[in-house]
Amino acid sequence: MDSILAMTDFVEALSLEGGSLGHSDFRILVEYKSSLRNVTEITTATFIRNGYNDGEIKLAENGELNSDNYHMDFTPSYQVYAFNSEECTLIITGSSGKMGGNYKVKLKKI
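Given the sequence above, the corresponding structure tokens read:
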């Protein structure tokens, strides 16, 4: 539940408007860090804000940011979200073999 609240705080701080289903699509700066690889890219993020998939975040592939090397979809069931009000960023943390253990994803609206 804390991750859903962090996502809500991020969306409200940016005054993001949802589409007809309440979902938010916007351009975002992604900083992805893990022990295996790091990338910084601009892409489109979709925040699912209601229904069965409430709380999911989907990143579009762009440049080096791709599903072969990075997780592109996130859910509060497997990752932890935290809102940083000073930087107005959403931080996603998790752990997986694909990323070589712990990883951190910072999202900032551009």
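The mean pLDDT is 91. Try to locate this feature in the token string yourself.
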